[in-house]
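An example makes the point: we let one protein speak, the chain in one-letter code, the fold tokenised, and here it is:
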Amino acid sequence: MIQDAKRLLAWQKLYPRNVNLSYSAIARELGVQSHNTIRNWDNMNMDDWSRMQRRKGKGHNRKISPNDELVIAGYVLDASNNHVPTRTWEVREFILKNYCVHVSPSWVTRFQDRQHLSNVIPSNMLKYEYASPFKVLVDYLVNLRKELQGLHPNQVCLFLLNAVDHLIHALDNGHG
């Protein structure tokens, strides 16, 4: 219907002497209740992207924005991939800590439904201990420092070059 109105408006602008269509006439022709609707359509960019952007601005108020919900979903998925159970109270605690927003347990349930997540805790998940990437990196650097301690700078360079060559070789052979 919008496309029909835009087409009639375009005809009106192209041939103003031959086509005499007012907003009211177009509204009647298309069965639109108000001529102001046609005027609004005429003054707005009506391509799909613009319409989607205007639609996104309307809607109910959310406690957490859709982009932040994706971040929270990423947290839940990351925890799951690292065999860390994420119970409702843990998700609520994460949201409170990072977004300063209190959410109810039912909000978490609806969020999980929206994001197609589950809080099912497989029994084998509980036996894994989570090692944060930061802790792994710090442990690696501490061990590297112990290995390199007391070496001459030339020896350190040689050690690092050999490590890089070994890494490149491993990646070339599909072990990375």
Summary: Residues 133-172 form one domain. DSSP finds nine helices and no strands in the chain. The mean pLDDT is 77. The radius of gyration is 30 Å.
